[in-house]
Automatic annotation (TrEMBL):
SUPFAM superfamilies in the record: Ribonuclease H-like
Name of this protein: DNA polymerase delta catalytic subunit
Residue segments, region Disordered: 31-53
Annotated ranges, domain DNA polymerase delta/zeta catalytic subunit N-terminal: 158-241
Catalytic activity: DNA(n) + a 2'-deoxyribonucleoside 5'-triphosphate = DNA(n+1) + diphosphate
Annotated ranges, domain DNA-directed DNA polymerase family B exonuclease: 268-407
Biological source species: Hanusia phi
GO CC terms in record: delta DNA polymerase complex
Example GO BP: DNA-templated DNA replication
């Protein structure tokens, strides 16, 4: 069984939310996609009266949260009550105007530290070895909103996941070097045998990077004194799991007689099952939904070719430059997009099955709120076929094909 170690006599606990169900509305609001973004991360929208432009406006407002509109004054002058009044006018022009006011077009100071409320952190497990991060660490995507309301995406790099193995005795510097070399050789040998039976092939990007001799106390049972451990750093979370498995079944006394003169040596692993998001937040003292800050000189701003999101601010930064702000307890004015999907089975009986061609999605209702406000900013319903509603504040979008409804 896995164990956890005390770093010192003073142990801090952090409230970390990793429940993706609660993150879904925020993730929807922050990471949507659209095809109308310009090179500055803004929205290439014009306030025209054509149906084509209106379709673009409605899609952008729902698919991507808080991308800047063309007019700053428009956003600043419109209150929530005013937006509701616009909705009551049954015209496409007024509704497109209302959607555009959801966006922020506030000036961004490139010479100022980036401070934002962290709303979501995501790490996508790679499917191929070529997609795995290299020896410099893997990257996680952090999303949030500034105090002014600008949406933020930060690609945080340089993160090296790790785990611990117990040692029967302390090691000197030379023995640590031997341990690392033997561990790398053992991992490559065993991993290649495992990968020979799968489509996933071992590459240089999937490896043990470094190790460090440390003293810790296990939380299992009563431990009066600290014990000896080796902290093993890997290139990515997948390597951690594979390496830990190899260590648990490895008698190192057979391969490292220069280090361990007596055997057998049975390694016990610690903290190899900690997910990368929890590792990131705990090691940097970051609290989910808390505020973080990155110095301006540590930010790498994305251009139209390198940006990875449709957020207002799209940057990259090293893990070591991210600083938590526990004293800041404000809440950013982020948008929340909640949706409800209605599906019907063939013949109207049973539960809908996506594998059955005649079981269809017929309606998707979306409502947009700004956090802290009681009245919705937008009500849009996507329908398969025709539909009508008595409430003038609800805009209906009709589609002939189910595919078009889902893609909208």
């Amino acid at each position: 069984s896995e164990g956890f170690l005390f770093k010192s006599h003073c142990v801090h606990f952090h409230a970390i939310s990793t429940n993706t169900r609660h993150q879904t509305p925020i993730r929807l609001a922050l990471r949507g996609g659209d095809d109308t973004m310009n090179s500055d991360g803004g929205s290439a929208m014009e306030d025209e009266e054509s149906d084509e432009d209106f379709e673009q406006l409605s899609e952008v407002a729902l698919d991507t949260e808080m991308t800047p509109a063309n007019s700053t004054n428009l956003h600043q002058d419109a209150s929530a009550s005013g937006l509701q009044e616009n909705l009551s006018l049954d015209t496409k022009q007024n509704f497109s105007l209302k959607l555009s006011t959801l966006r922020r077009n506030l000036p961004i100071n490139l010479n100022k530290s980036l401070t934002f409320q962290l709303l979501d952190v995501d790490y996508t497990r790679p499917q191929k070895s070529s997609e795995v991060a290299n020896h410099e660490g893997f990257t996680v995507n952090a999303f949030g909103v500034t105090q002014e309301g600008n949406s933020v995406h930060v690609a945080i790099s340089g993160i090296l996941p790790y785990f611990f193995v117990n040692l029967p005795k302390p090691l000197d510097e030379e023995q640590c070097k031997i341990f690392l070399a033997k561990a790398i050789k053992k991992f490559e040998s065993q991993a290649n045998q495992q990968y020979a039976y799968s489509n996933f092939q071992l590459s240089e990007s999937c490896r043990i990077v470094n190790c460090s001799y440390v003293s810790r106390r296990s939380i299992w049972g009563y431990q009066r004194n600290e014990s000896h451990y080796m902290q093993i750093f890997c290139s990515n979370p997948e390597t951690v799991k594979r390496a830990a498995t190899i260590f648990r079944h490895w008698d190192a006394s057979l391969d490292m007689q220069e280090v361990f003169s007596k055997g057998p040596i049975v390694f016990q692993t610690f903290e190899s099952n900690v997910d990368p998001i929890t590792r990131l937040t705990t090691d940097s003292n970051i609290v989910m939904s808390g505020w973080v800050q990155i110095p301006s000189d540590q930010l790498k701003w994305s251009d139209s070719k390198t940006r990875l999101s449709h957020c207002d601010i799209d940057v990259a930064a090293h893990f070591s430059s991210v600083r938590a702000l526990p004293e800041k307890e404000d809440v950013s004015p982020f948008l929340i997009g909640s949706f409800d999907i209605e599906c019907v089975p063939e013949g109207g009986r049973g539960f809908p099955d996506p594998n059955k061609p005649l079981d269809r999605c017929i309606q998707i209702g979306t409502i947009v709120y700004r956090f802290g406000e009681s009245k919705p900013l937008a009500n849009i319903v996507y329908c398969l076929g025709t539909a009508s509603v008595d409430d003038e504040s609800v805009y209906i979008r009709e589609f002939e094909r189910e595919e078009d409804l889902l893609m909208a």
